[in-house]
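Researcher: Watch the backbone:
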Amino acid sequence: MSFYICIREVSAMEKNRQCYSGIGGQAVIEGVMMRCGEKYAIAMRAQDGRIEIKEDVYKGVLAGSPLRKVPFVRGFFALIDSLVLGMHCTNVSAELYGEEEEAGGPAEAPSGKDPGASPAKKEEESGWEMILVMGFSILLAVGLFILLPLGLTSLLGRVVKSPAVLAIAEGLLRLAIFLAYVTGISALKDIRRLYQYHGAEHKCINCIESGLPLTVENAAGSTRLHKRCGSSFLLFVMMISMILFFFIRVGNPLLKVVVRLLMIPVVSGISFEIIRLAGASDNPFIRIISAPGLWLQRLTTREPDEEMLKVGIASVEAVFDWRAYQEKTFGAQTS
C-alpha cells in the first residue's frame, strides 16, 4: 500500500537529490496499480503474456472540500481513499484474473455469479462484495491490533500494577503482532509474488524520481524501498499510537476500546504529516525516522523479475508523463 502524496517539484539546482513526483500505487493480483491525481491505472499480466490495462478516475472522499487541505485532518481522508481505492483495485484485479482462469477452463460463472448478468448487475454485485470484504478487513484489524493487545495487557495487569509500564507493553505487543502478521503472511506463495509486484511499483517510482529514463534496465537497478510507502505509514501509526496512549489513559476496558477507535483519525493524521515530510525532505533527522519503515519494506517487498517491471512501467505510462516531469524537474532530455 502507498499513499498518493503530491510533493512539490524541486528545481534543477537540486537535481542531485531524489525528486518526488506525486505518483503512487500498490501491488494487485498479478499486476500494479498506479495513481497520479485523480487518474489511476491497473496493469496486469494476462495468462497469454499480454499486459492488460484498465484506466479510470477516482476523485476521493470529500473531493474539493477544504478539509482535504487541512494539516493533520487530510491524513484521515488519505487513509480512507487508500483503503477504498486499494480494495477496489484488488477486487478488479481478482475479477480479471478469475476471468483469465475461467477462459481456460469450464464455462461456469466464478464465485456463484450469473454469467448472463448485465454489466450494471455485475457492478452492483462487485460493490457489495467489496463492502463485505472491507468490513471483514476492518473487523480483523480491530481484533488483531486493538482488542488482542488490550486483552493481553489486561492479563499482564494482574502482575504489573504500573499504568506506564502497561501502556508501553500494550504498544510493544501491538507492534509485535503487526510484525508477526507481516512476517507470517510473507511465507505464503501468493503473497510473496504480490510483494514482488510491490517491489516493481517502488522501483519504477524510484527510477522516475532519480531522473533516470523509465526502462526495465534502469528500474531493475533502482532500490525497491521508498519512504512514502504504506508499510512505513503503518509503522508510524504503531509508533505514534504508542506515544499517544502512553499519555491518554482510561481505566474502563470498554472505554479503552472506544478511545482507541476515536483516536484513529488523530493517529493517521499525525502519521500522514510525518510521511509527507519524509517524502519532501532528505535531511539526517528524516533519514533516521524513516529507517525503521525502510527496514520493514525488506519484508513487504521482494525483487521483481523483468516481466513484472514491464507491468509496472505500463501502469506508470498509462497515468503519468514521466518524460515531461523529468524535463521540467531535472532539465535533461530523456528517451
Summary: The longest strand covers residues 39-45. Residues 119-156 form the longest helix (38 residues).
